[in-house]
Specification:
Blueprint: H1 3-19, E1 25-28, E2 34-37, H2 51-61, H3 71-83
Antiparallel strand pairs: 1-2
Helix pairs in contact: 1-2
C-alpha cells in the first residue's frame, strides 16, 4: 500500500473511532482521488478529492478530542508572551 493510501486510511480509522460508526469506508479512483462512503454500496459523502483535501474533509466530519495542555505548557506560553517585543 502506498504512503498516500496509508495516510488516507489512517484518517478514516480515526474518524471511525471518533464517530463510533465503524461502517465508514474509503475508496480510491483510478486517477488517485479518494472519496468517503458511509458503508458498502452507499452513495459517496464527497466528490473524489486529492489526498490533502480528503484528509481535511474526513477530519472535519467529527471533531477530534481536545488537546491536553500541561502546567508546563501553560508556563512556557507565559514566558513566550513576556519575551515578545
Amino acid at each position: 500500500m502506498s504512503g498516500r493510501a496509508t495516510r488516507a486510511t489512517s484518517a478514516v480509522d480515526r474518524l471511525k473511532v471518533r464517530s463510533g460508526n465503524a461502517k465508514y469506508s474509503m475508496s480510491r479512483t483510478g486517477s488517485g482521488h479518494f472519496f468517503l462512503t458511509e458503508g458498502a454500496g452507499q452513495p459517496p459523502l464527497c466528490a473524489p478529492l486529492e489526498l490533502d483535501d480528503f484528509v481535511a474533509f474526513v477530519n472535519g466530519i467529527s471533531p477530534g478530542p481536545p488537546k491536553r495542555v500541561s502546567k508546563l505548557d501553560i508556563a512556557f506560553e507565559k514566558q513566550l508572551i513576556k519575551k515578545a517585543p
